[in-house]
């Protein structure tokens, strides 16, 4: 089941952050095929000096609107799903929130079911 962490520079309004979380959730359910309701998203806002990134690594032109998205998951662990997820997130953030695609970095981490406990100290 996916867990998403989103990091960005502080200062975006709550509506922006909510829309950002919703877009990531829609990608997790719609593209990675996690079950509906599997919504676990943490948004971390940072002072500019505490979110360190290279503005031009790999030819990108990153701005202070840079967003780092990390998804830890047990689903969508094939190349086609990963690429579709990356494309969905970039397209949706661009069209719905005006985020430049150079400002979107996504990292996916895949783990086994036994690496999760959803409560009560019990493994999944």
pLDDT average, as an integer? 95
The coarse silhouette is globular
Residue ranges: pLDDT <50 for 5 or more in a row? none
Give the CA-CA distance, first to last residue: 10 Å
Individual helix count = 2
Outline the biggest β-sheet.
4 strands, mixed
Estimate the strand proportion. 15-25%
- Provide the succession of SSEs: EHEEHE
List the helices and strands and how they pair.
Elements: E1 3-9, H1 14-30, E2 41-46, E3 67-73, H2 79-97, E4 104-110
Parallel strand pairs: 1-2, 3-4
Antiparallel strand pairs: 1-3
Helix pairs in contact: 1-2
Structure description:
- It is a single chain.
- The protein is α/β, with parallel strands linked by helices.
- The chain has two helices and four strands; from the N terminus they run βαββαβ.
- It has helices at residues 14-30, 79-97; strands spanning 3-9, 41-46, 67-73, 104-110.
- α1 runs antiparallel to α2.
- The longest helix has 19 residues, at 79-97.
- The chain is globular.
- The mean pLDDT is 95.
